[in-house]
Amino acid sequence: MPRRTVSFSELDTAKQCPLKHQLAYVERWTRQQAPDSALAKGTAWHSVMEAHYKVIQRAQRALTGNPIGPGRGRWSEEAVRDACLRTVSHVISGMDESLAGLIWWMYQGYIDCYGLDPEWEILAVEHHAECVLPTLRGNNSTFTLKMKIDLVVRNRRNKQVYVVDHKSGKDLPGNKAMELDDQFGLYTWGMRQIGRKVFGQIHNAARTYRLQADVKEPGTTPLDERFRRTPMIRSDKELDIVAREAYQTAKARYSQQAEVDRAARTADKGWQQITSPRHTDPERCAWRCDFKDACIAGRKGINVQGYLRDQGMEQNFERH
Question: What is the spatial distance between Cα 278 and Cα 262, in angstroms, rounded to a whole number?
Fold first, then answer.
C-alpha cells in the first residue's frame, strides 16, 4: 500500500461512512457552505481565534516572554487588547453580514471571559506538524498523520505544555463527549512523537447559540453558560491505543476503497455504479452529511458524480 497522509477529520469521516469518505476525501467533492451552517460558524470562529492569539504571541515575544501587564510601554495590557480588537474587527469585516454579528458577539464575550490569557505563554498558533502512525505491533505504518493544532501554550504556573483546540457549537459539550473525541489525544500523541513535551489538552468551547433576550440586552446570558475550558490528561497507554486505532481506521478504509476501485474498473458496461458501502443512519445522515441526497439517488441507480455536479458541487484537490 502506498504511503498516504491523513488528517483527523478524514479519519473521523471514514469512521462515519465509507461512501462519505470516498466522495469527500478520495474524489474531493465540496460545496460552498451557507453562512448559517455549523461549518461556516466554526471556520469563522477559528479565524478569529487565530488572529487574536497571533497578536498576543507577538506582544509576548516583544516582551521576551514576560506576561503582559501595566507599565510595559507600547505593549501594555490596554495596547494589546486594542490591537486584538482592531485585528479581529478587520477579520470579521470580511464575513457575511449575517455571520459577522454573531462572531463579534462571541468574541466580545470571549475577551470578557478570558481577557488576554496572562497565565498562558503562547508557543504556537495554527501549528502544522506530521508524524507516522504506528501499526498494531508498534512499527511505522504507511500512513502519515498531519496535524493542524489551533494553539500550543505553556502554563506559567506549572510550566506544563498543552495543546488547545477551539470548538464552537450550539451547546457546550459534556465530559463524556470529550472523552470520546480522539482528536485531542491523537494530537498529544503526535506531538510527543516528534519530541514535543506536551502534558495534556484543553478543550476550549464557545457557544454559537444566542438567546433573543441577549440580542435585546447583551450580557443577559452568563459567560459561564457561553464558554467552557476543560483540561484533559491521558496516559501514554491510552494515547498509544488511540494512535493504533487511527491506523486501523485508515488501513481498513483504504483497503476497502482499493477493492471498490478494482471492481469499478473491471465492471461490465451498463452495470450499476460501484461505490463504497453506505453506513446509513437517519439522524447522523440528516445533520452531518452534505452527500445524503446524492447517496439516496445513487442507491436508486442515478450516477452519484453527475448528481453532485447538478447540485452545484465541485471537486477541489487543494483543500485540507
Answer: 18
